[in-house]
Write a structure and sequence with these properties.
heterodimer; A: alpha/beta; 6-stranded mixed sheet; B: mainly alpha; 2% strand; globular
Chain lengths: 318, 253
């Protein structure tokens, strides 16, 4: 984040193109079934999936840590196997595990990463990265003396040391405190504003919902869907209509059983879940029937399903 | 070539040496000094000379070889094993570097360290005995070639090992016995005829013999054979490393 350039909107021009990528480990475990995916230049892409879904395998293959099975991957038009020098120098990776050189200082380990990626020393860039990550005061500390959160920052600093155009964050906020999580998301936004493409996996789905331009859902090695976050919310979004009743109800009248209503424990709230995409939401008839049954309500509210709920539904339905 | 990467790995490894100065430099120097005191002075005073060379001076090339072999193997094996153990190897895999550059960085640093140790031992020996070097250029070549070859060998062990025990087993159970039995402290002509033949199966014999020749013009086997033996082992190690990186053996799944 040396200089902030005007915001680059996420274009449709792909920076990463994955075609028919398949991976079976030597143990016989099939981690990925043929996957096709395009990541657009400058977007924040969230990859969601339960543990063991294949998220890390997918990232690791693009970054060169795991050998691809069949299929092809290109970054900026270059093949990740044939032109590995060109593709890897454009990519920064923050892995899930906190793996650091315990006995090195922060400054040395970040400078090491820059050299490893083939760039000449540039102390002013390292300084900027460390300052952006609130690590400047710790630059001469050995890594083993740092807290877990600080180590996570060091790993991000290492990934940014060579000014990558694509940044992979594998579960960056797992086990991270609120402050660091906020800092991290601010950093991700600033990077995106500088034109860096960001691909992240996370279990904090509400953050993907808030951060990501697009979401890909992966389960058992299969990419179930890729959608604009807003479209996904709209398309799969269910809404809940909650009615606050004047008089508590003991049971839901059988005449309303078609609506699958839920009654709160104290009998004062009725909840109706409906599909926003359905031709008829059923709200008008429900309200009519409630009135016919003599049930009156004081207030009503609606709530959109979170991505988390959508996600759980999607995975369960496979 | 990604020179910046080679330099980064080399410097990283050398700074590890500086952090562990006692273990890396002081301990081999101390143990070698003890050999001089025990074998050179105490026992050596009873043995006047071997093939015309005072016993204290006779054992210098063997002692340097002993340190050079064990240091090269342990430095290089630990250098590549440790990132595998801690997981930091991910960065090496994700970096735009080829296996040639990885090997240059790690093996270069390990060989440098063991050459430093060898030179320090050579200087330390001066405190105990007088010696001369008949062929300084060849002596240096032997020193470098052995350090590089056995650092390559150590690198292979570091990749093969998946626990600390495996890491130690080759240096302890193979390298050390072979060095002791390889004529470091004696001329193989002092052995019974049958053992003279058997001992020729020990590759370290060729290293020690060639190295001693560069000091005193004194060899158990001819220098050409010594050089050929070490060159052969170097090629074998290079081929093995080439295969490891091509197949991703124990490195990439």
């Amino acid at each position: 984040m040396t200089r902030l350039s005007p915001e680059v909107p996420a274009g449709t021009d792909p920076i990463i193109v994955i075609k028919g990528l398949d991976k079976t480990y030597a143990s016989g475990f099939r981690a990925l079934k043929p996957i096709d995916l395009e990541i657009r230049r400058g977007e924040i892409f969230a990859l969601l999936g339960p543990n063991g879904a294949g998220k890390t395998t997918l990232i690791s293959i693009v970054c060169g840590i795991v050998n691809p099975g069949s299929g092809s991957i290109s970054v900026d038009g270059q093949d990740v196997v044939r032109d590995f020098r060109a593709t890897r120098s454009r990519i920064g990776l923050v892995p899930q595990e906190l793996t650091t050189d315990a006995f090195e200082t922060v400054w040395n380990t970040v400078s090491f990463s820059r050299g490893l990626f083939g760039l000449p020393p540039k102390p002013e860039h390292i300084e900027q990265v460390l300052k952006d990550l609130s690590l400047w005061d710790k630059r001469n500390n050995r890594i083993l003396t740092l807290s877990g959160g600080m180590k996570r920052r060091v790993m991000i600093a290492k990934a940014l040391s060579h000014e990558p155009r694509v940044l992979f964050l594998d579960e960056p906020t797992a086990g991270v405190d609120v402050e660091l999580r906020r800092d991290m998301w601010n950093l991700v936004r600033r990077l995106r504003d500088n034109g860096v493409t960001i691909i992240l996996t996370t279990h904090y789905i509400e953050e993907a919902e808030e951060m990501a331009d697009r979401v890909g859902v992966i389960n058992k090695g299969e990419l179930i869907l890729v959608e604009e976050t807003a479209t996904l919310m709209h398309k799969l979004g269910k809404k809940a209509l909650t009615l606050q009743l004047h008089q508590p109800l003991a049971t839901i009248p059988t005449s309303l059983s078609d609506y699958h209503l839920a009654l709160s424990a104290d009998g004062t709230e009725l909840t109706y879940t409906y599909d926003t995409q359905a031709e008829r939401t059923g709200i008008t008839t429900l309200l009519g029937e409630l009135s016919g049954a003599g049930i009156r309500f004081r207030d009503l509210s609606t709530k959109q399903n979170t991505l988390e709920e959508i996600f759980v539904d999607l995975v369960r339905s496979r | 070539m990604n020179w910046h990467a080679i330099r980064a790995i080399y410097r990283f490894e050398m700074s590890r040496t500086r952090r562990t100065l006692m273990q890396s430099i002081a301990s081999p120097v101390l143990s070698t000094s003890l050999y001089f005191v025990v074998f050179g002075s105490a026992i050596g005073s009873r043995i006047t000379s071997v093939d015309g060379v005072p016993y204290g001076a006779f054992i210098i090339p063997g002692l340097i070889m002993l340190s050079l072999l064990t240091q090269s193997v342990s430095n290089a094996s630990f250098g590549i094993y440790f990132p595998k153990f801690t997981g930091t190897i991910y960065e090496i895999h994700s970096a735009p570097i080829s296996f040639v550059e990885i090997v240059c960085g790690y093996v270069g640093a390990a060989a440098t360290k063991s050459v430093i140790v060898g030179v320090i031992i050579l200087a330390t020996a001066r405190l105990f005995v007088d010696y001369h070097i008949a062929h300084p250029l060849l002596m240096t070549s032997f020193l470098l070639l052995t350090a590089i070859t056995f650092s390559l060998f150590g690198f292979i062990i570091g990749i093969w090992a998946d626990n600390f025990e495996k890491l130690q087993v080759i240096p302890l159970l193979v390298i050390t016995p072979l060095t002791f039995l390889g004529g470091s402290f004696y001329s193989i002509h002092m052995l019974p005829p049958l053992w003279q033949k058997i001992t020729l199966l020990n590759p370290v014999v060729y290293l020690v013999s060639g190295f001693r020749w560069s000091f005193y013009d004194l060899a158990d086997v001819s220098v050409g054979i010594s050089l050929a033996a070490i060159a052969g082992f170097l090629v074998a190690c290079l081929l093995a490393i080439g295969w490891i990186f091509r197949t991703g053996y124990k490195l990439r799944s």
